[in-house]
Request: fold
Amino acid sequence: MSKYVPMISSGLAGPLGVLHLPRLWQKASLEAQGKLHADYPGIGKGYDSMVLAALHLDEAAVRAFIQTKPSYPQFEAWIKQQPGVKLDKATIYKNNAAILGYIHADATRHAILEANGLPDDGSVSPAAVDLNNLDDWGTFHKEVLS
Reply:
């Protein structure tokens, strides 16, 4: 069985406009099927937890629904039906700003840049979304293309 590197960026949103939500769906879906690359959590403590907390979604309920193998539009439709969910523009804006504004610790940034053969000299965006993309692409290249 193949294990997959999630390739949807945290910087992307679906129809609801929530950044990282499509990536959360992809990772949780792959994990539920035993197909997620070992270096990635299905629902982790970083952006995944930030999005769930912002929207007032229960992690266990999300995991249970993901077991039904929903498409992404079905996942968003389910979210809209959850009691207490917060999908107002202010909540989404704050979540998105937090996602885009997050900066990794120096050691994390350095490790990602080093793994990709890039200098840690300030020439690469320090934004976690951008560094995570580099990390995904590097892992994908190593595992699939080389």
Q: What stands out?
A: The mean pLDDT is 97. The chain is about 55% helix and 0% strand.
